[in-house]
Amino acid sequence: MKAAITTTPIGGSPFQSRRRPLVIKKFGGTSVANIERIRRIARLALEAQRAGNDVVVVVSAMGGETDRLLKLAYQLLPVPDSREMDVLAATGEQVTVALTALAIQAEGGKAASFLGHQLPVITDSSFTRARIQCVEQGPIREALAGGQIAVVAGFQGVDPKNNITTLGRGGSDTTAVAVAATLGADICEIYTDVEGVFTADPRVCPSGLKLKSIPYEEMLELASLGAKVLQVRSVEIAMKYDVPIHVRSSFTEEEGTRIVSRDKMLESRRLMGLACERNQVRVELIGAECRPGLVAELTDFMAELNVSVDMLCHSRGALENPRADISFTLPEGELRRAQPELEHFMGRLGASSMQVSSDLAKVSLVGIGLRSDPGIAARLCRSLTEQGIHVSGLSVNELRISCLVEGDAADQAVCILHETFELAGETRVEPLASLSPA
Amino acid sequence: MKAAITTTPIGGSPFQSRRRPLVIKKFGGTSVANIERIRRIARLALEAQRAGNDVVVVVSAMGGETDRLLKLAYQLLPVPDSREMDVLAATGEQVTVALTALAIQAEGGKAASFLGHQLPVITDSSFTRARIQCVEQGPIREALAGGQIAVVAGFQGVDPKNNITTLGRGGSDTTAVAVAATLGADICEIYTDVEGVFTADPRVCPSGLKLKSIPYEEMLELASLGAKVLQVRSVEIAMKYDVPIHVRSSFTEEEGTRIVSRDKMLESRRLMGLACERNQVRVELIGAECRPGLVAELTDFMAELNVSVDMLCHSRGALENPRADISFTLPEGELRRAQPELEHFMGRLGASSMQVSSDLAKVSLVGIGLRSDPGIAARLCRSLTEQGIHVSGLSVNELRISCLVEGDAADQAVCILHETFELAGETRVEPLASLSPA
């Protein structure tokens, strides 16, 4: 039954009846870390093709390769030019596509590799974190029509002036989903070194449960909260174009987790899981001038530095002494980058001092209807407090509730909340058949 | 005086007076083998720029990198698809251009890298040994006009369908010369791990002398005879477009060897030097049918296999038994590749057997007027024979005389001939000024 999902034709709309189903398979760095593993993914791709699918493989650089290359550059400059960094980094995937195409040929199949500039994958010009604007499908269609497996370099593209660009960490996920969206693929399979999306990281919370499926929206929340299964941007594109994603292990044949639109969910769950972002800091600007638009001034300023702040809190002093305190959280790395400008900005706000509390963690519960049921936030705070964990911040929206705790209490908090909200249970499995597009 | 050649403006025609002189600097694998060496070439490039030149740097892959990559492919397939091999191999130079551009920036300069497909360098579609058809100069001109040093990836190009191609071993030389020809550069400096072109390999013959200059034609002969200083194709292009080349060491500031048109020679020499090709084999096809066009049949057939034969000898039997024997030499590696087809072909010629003599060497004297003076060939044979070296083949043309000897006598033969023809002497140095374009 499992095998049927990946290797038998998917789909079945009368309009598609004469077209072969199309499967995109994306393999990350650990799945292509050496020649043996590349052989293995070649066989996976060929199996899928022999079962009647058209197959596109998207690959990342061999594990550790991108870091090795970037380290060379950092030996030259502390802040290397980002255009050249992308030229450098893009070689990682170029090596893997060639080897993967060769591996498929070695197994008796037909394959051709495609680099970002060969399709092309057009992006904007934000080197090292470019965003895909469009993917040209002609070359892939032609390869598929010729019975080839198309092997596409993840992570890379070209801007309109033909400069090499890369998409940032996890960018190959985004390439895979963008290719899937462009070609109208039946499924985009993301092979990774975890087995799927869990209610909580099983290394932290042993009762963490693999989800059979999760809606795009909740996955977006989890991804942006540090569940490093998928690049956030890839989920955004999948949601926009309704591309079904299957996150699964490279090392087993097990079903992983399907990321789908809400109406295609396999199980009905309200709470999806817990995410944990470590290395958070809270910054407090104390005694700023109490003027209108203070918060907007701050967020504008931080946006210019390309820093996202969260859990912002603005408190006014007493009437007789109208000074404002503003606090917010951000990742420690971002603060290091922004601190000099921030201290300068503090002066513009007239703030008297800046306090930084570091080594905090943001633990988040992701689900639906979390704001409309205030009982959930209350239960969350109570259960942590009862176990002696201090909650120093809370933010609530419809799809998630986040609380700020001390870094060394983060794991415990995840486990407490996993139990409190019975995340290992609360799942009703529906027949897999409900997955096939109606 | 030395420094003046590389770093002060070259040229001086009144038509060029408002243009900055243009220097192309090509660095091979050993010159970019690690970050320290890359820093060094960055400084060399900047020195030349600060002295008033426009500078284009052409780089190879880091030493050993191409072999490392190709070895990965050979783990997958004994004869990997050549299109994918080029995708793989081209990453080597891509890494180096990025690092070199960064190194120039780290030294305070401005630089931008250009890959084969970005200029583009258009080649034919003969993967792994493509020939450059043209180089687009726009992007380099634009970079130079902006005060940047243009860093161009050697060895790689794209065919008209945008497939990645590579130019074969030593292809970066050809890239450098093609770029120099396209841009009308004043000089193309080839930095290498030898100090220049020698009358004989100094490791074999300690009295081997570095030539101050050598005409294109003689350099072509030397290069094609295994003096691995430059790719043959690069010399062909330089000759066609009259690009002055300066072959010099990456590790010293010494003048190397100028490769120039005959009228710009620094010294007047008739004999340029000795080259030695090892690992030659002689194949004899015995008792073939004695029919017209036999030799053409053979050479056509070998050309189809892309094998160059040399020292071909066709002997007819007696009138009453008109069978033909044909012998020829070729590199051992080529024979290994061609042997199965050759044995099959032997049947078509009706030959009764094929004999292979291996471990031979071809020692060649390169100079001018060698055919018109039969005394030279005679002196060559006599001097070798007197020292007990058997000459089993001889071919003579205007620019070279080659003789076939046993492999283990090759070094001795080189030394004998170096002395016989007094190659360490016979040089009259003219002032360097004669080099500058009139």
Automatic annotation (TrEMBL), chains A, B:
Name the record gives this protein: Aspartokinase
Origin species: Stigmatella aurantiaca (strain DW4/3-1)
Annotated positions binding substrate: T66, E93
Keyword annotations of the record: Amino-acid biosynthesis, ATP-binding, Kinase, Lysine biosynthesis, Nucleotide-binding, Transferase
InterPro entries with a match to the protein in the record: AceGlu_kinase-like_sf (IPR036393), ACT-like_dom_sf (IPR045865), ACT_Aspartokinase (IPR054352), AKii-LysC-BS (IPR041740), Asp/Glu/Uridylate_kinase (IPR001048), Asp_kin_monofn (IPR005260), Asp_kinase (IPR001341), Aspartate_kinase_CS (IPR018042)
Keyword Amino-acid biosynthesis recorded: yes
Pathway: Amino-acid biosynthesis; L-threonine biosynthesis; L-threonine from L-aspartate: step 1/5; Amino-acid biosynthesis; L-lysine biosynthesis via DAP pathway; (S)-tetrahydrodipicolinate from L-aspartate: step 1/4; Amino-acid biosynthesis; L-methionine biosynthesis via de novo pathway; L-homoserine from L-aspartate: step 1/3
GO molecular function terms noted in the UniProt entry: aspartate kinase activity; ATP binding
GO biological process, one term: lysine biosynthetic process via diaminopimelate
Lineage: Bacteria, Pseudomonadati, Myxococcota, Myxococcia, Myxococcales
